[in-house]
């Protein structure tokens, strides 16, 4: 961007300008524009702004660049083709925004302001150019701007896809690490116990417990490996549909809810509102179990004793099944919600703060995994939360219509 | 290489894990220095010549990867063994590119198993090393 700005300054110097004053004016205009751009981008970089703020800052920048270019053309007597290079700046700038459509918006803006400034200039100086003389450059440069936009947006699209793919691979790698880490520690502890001096003094029953611990840990490890092994870079094959079976939702939800409530010693707080019928959907039972368990656990973990956790299932509106999991706990702030649902795209494993970052991300990981699983099953995951009031997760999945219509096969 | 004389540096930040592996390795007759983060490890490798560096990847201050990049592996004649929970091929490949001789996953290398494997590695009979020297 700075290089382009430099080109623009040089171009303005060499192009036909009438007085020294104009030259000074143009140069200071461009330099102040560049300075503003730099400040905008520094602010953007320094603060992790939400996407909307990021976009509005970007749009402001594009607008600023386009109007700057228009001012230059107007004041220096615009038909000079070298001045049009200024209009390319906002279009090219959009390349770093990772929003392909911005290139077209910038092109439209550039064309508009270019033609506008030409017409304005012609109106004020009818003696220099007749109106028909500016028609050709207006059409020609508008065409060039859009061509440039096509190239820039194509390039951006490719970069964006690549970045998405990379961040997904990174996320998977982190996920595997976070999930494997505890089982690695447990395996080491069990081995140390077995090799320790006092192990021989344990009773047969106690030795059996240690063996069981080792076995269960191995099972967890295998389960995690299986869960993640089909996941590859594009994410589309994370859930192999070949393995899908009929999932009895009522059973799974009841089991998950009860086991979590027992684990948190809050069976009385569990408010289960489910219809008394067999409701099935097609899917991977292990993954769906994991998805529900994560959400229910979150509800119990972040709410206090004697506050109800309500789990309701609505299946009246065929073919959608809605499952609501609601707690009255501490709630999740808007910032955290965004982090849970989107910020995983921005995990940087190579950064120095990655150690803390990974630990923070691990907190929200449960809900993120649940969201991924539900979406892989063609469902919807909606997170509603207010700080201090509680959290409600709404899941909408499709009912297995075959089974619903024709009963047991 | 004799295991009593070999200079080993073990880098691990998680206290529980560190204690267990250090205890096990010492009980098998190894002598070793311990670092709890990458920065400390970098200082140590520049003051003493080690035969084997046992390195975790997820470390505070300076990560394992950064350690490998900053520590000039090419001038180092000893072995670097990664002991990590990361098991994805791209991480393994990247460490090999940075001069790592062996990549071991923690869950498959519990403390006493690691000690045995390390002994085998010193005697030049570890499968992982053999493939490396062939390549």
Strand content of chain B: 15-25%
| Oligomerization state | heterodimer
* Mean pLDDT figure of chain B: 85
Q: What is the average per-residue confidence, as pLDDT of chain A, rounded to a whole number?
A: 74
Helical percentage of chain B: 40-55%
CATH topology of chain B: Rossmann fold
Query: Helicity range of the residues of chain A?
Result: 55-70%
Q: Please identify the structural class of chain B as seen in this structure.
A: alpha/beta
Q: What spatial form of chain B do the alpha-carbon principal axes imply?
A: globular
Strand order across the biggest sheet of chain B?
A: 2-1-3-4-5
CATH superfamily of chain B: Response regulator
Number of helices of chain A: 12
Identify the CATH class of chain B.
Answer: Alpha Beta
Topology diagram in text:
The complex is a heterodimer of chains A (409) and B (135).
Chain A: H1 2-14, H2 20-46, H3 51-76, H4 85-93, H5 100-124, H6 135-195, H7 204-229, E1 245-248, H8 249-263, E2 270-273, E3 280-283, H9 285-301, E4 309-314, E5 320-327, H10 334-341, H11 354-376, E6 380-386, E7 390-398, H12 401-406
Parallel strand pairs in A: 2-4
Antiparallel strand pairs in A: 1-3, 4-5, 5-7, 6-7
Helix pairs in contact in A: 1-2, 2-3, 3-4, 3-5, 4-5, 4-6, 5-6, 6-7, 8-9, 9-11, 10-11
Chain B: E1 8-11, H1 15-27, E2 32-35, H2 38-47, E3 52-55, H3 64-70, E4 79-84, H4 89-97, E5 102-105, H5 111-122, H6 127-134
Helix pairs in contact in B: 1-5, 2-3
Characterise this structure.
The complex is a heterodimer of chains A (about 400) and B (about 140). By secondary structure, chain A is an alpha+beta fold. Helices cover about 65% and strands about 10% of the residues of chain A. Chain A has a five-stranded mixed sheet, covered by helices on one side. Chain A has a two-stranded antiparallel sheet with strand order 1-3. In chain A, helix 4 (about 85-95) packs antiparallel against helix 5, helix 6 runs antiparallel to helix 7 and helix 8 runs parallel beside helix 9 (about 285-300). The radius of gyration of chain A is 31 Å and the shape is elongated. The termini of chain A are far apart. Chain B is α/β, with parallel strands linked by helices and about 140 residues long. Chain B has one domain (about 10-135): Rossmann fold. Chain B contains six helices and five strands; from the N terminus they run βαβαβαβαβαα. In chain B, strands 2-1-3-4-5 form a five-stranded parallel sheet, with helices on both faces. In chain B, strand 3, helix 3 and strand 4 form a beta-alpha-beta unit.
């Amino acid at each position: 961007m700075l290089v382009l700005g430099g080109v623009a300054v040089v171009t303005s110097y060499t192009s036909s300008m009438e007085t020294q004053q104009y030259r000074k004016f143009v140069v200071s205009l461009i330099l102040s524009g560049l300075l503003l751009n730099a400040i905008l981008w520094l602010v953007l970089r320094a603060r992790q702004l939400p996407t909307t703020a990021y976009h509005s800052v970007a749009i402001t920048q594009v607008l600023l660049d386009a109007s700057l270019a228009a001012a230059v053309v107007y004041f220096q007597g615009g038909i000079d083709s070298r001045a049009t290079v200024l209009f390319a700046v906002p279009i090219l700038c959009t390349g770093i925004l990772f929003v392909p459509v911005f290139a077209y918006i910038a092109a439209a803006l550039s064309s508009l302001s270019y033609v506008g400034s030409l017409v304005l200039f012609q109106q004020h100086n009818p003696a220099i150019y007749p109106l028909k003389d500016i028609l050709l450059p207006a059409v020609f440069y508008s065409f060039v701007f859009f061509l440039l936009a096509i190239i820039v947006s194509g390039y951006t699209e490719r970069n964006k896809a690549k970045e998405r793919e990379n961040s997904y691979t990174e996320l998977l790698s982190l996920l595997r690490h976070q999930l494997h880490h505890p089982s690695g520690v447990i395996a080491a502890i069990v081995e140390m116990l077995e090799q320790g001096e006092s192990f021989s003094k344990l009773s047969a029953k106690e030795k059996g417990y240690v063996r069981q611990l080792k076995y269960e840990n191995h099972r967890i490890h295998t389960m995690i490996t299986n869960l993640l092994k089909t996941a590859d870079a594009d994410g589309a094959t994370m859930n192999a549909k070949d393995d899908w079976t009929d999932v009895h939702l009522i059973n799974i939800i009841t089991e998950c809810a009860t086991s979590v409530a027992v684990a948190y010693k809050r069976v009385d707080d569990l408010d289960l509102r489910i219809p008394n019928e067999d409701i099935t959907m097609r899917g991977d039972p292990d993954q769906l179990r994991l998805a529900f368990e994560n959400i229910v656990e979150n509800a119990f973990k972040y709410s206090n004793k004697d506050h109800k956790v309500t789990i309701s299932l609505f299946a009246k509106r065929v073919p959608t099944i809605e499952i609501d999991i609601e707690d009255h706990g501490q709630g999740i702030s808007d910032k955290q919600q965004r982090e849970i649902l989107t910020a995983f795209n921005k995990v940087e494993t190579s950064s120095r703060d990655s150690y803390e970052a990974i630990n923070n991300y691990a907190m929200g990981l449960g809900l993120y995994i649940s969201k991924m699983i539900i979406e892989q099953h063609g469902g919807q995951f909606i997170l509603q939360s207010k700080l201090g009031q509680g959290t409600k997760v709404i899941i909408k999945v499709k009912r297995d219509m075959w089974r619903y219509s024709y009963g047991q096969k | 290489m004799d295991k009593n004389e070999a200079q080993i540096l073990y880098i691990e930040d998680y206290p529980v894990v560190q204690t267990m592996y250090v205890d096990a390795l010492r009980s098998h007759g190894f002598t070793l220095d311990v670092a709890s983060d990458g920065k400390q490890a970098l200082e140590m490798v520049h003051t003493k010549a080690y035969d084997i560096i046992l390195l975790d990847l997820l470390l505070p201050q300076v990560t394992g990867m950064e350690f490998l990049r900053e520590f000039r592996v090419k001038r180092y004649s000893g072995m670097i063994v990664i002991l990590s929970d990361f098991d994805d091929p791209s991480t393994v490949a990247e460490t090999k590119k940075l001069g790592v001789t062996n990549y071991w996953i923690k869950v498959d290398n519990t403390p006493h198993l690691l000690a045995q494997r390390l002994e085998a590695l010193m005697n030049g009979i570890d499968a992982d090393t053999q493939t490396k020297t062939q390549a």
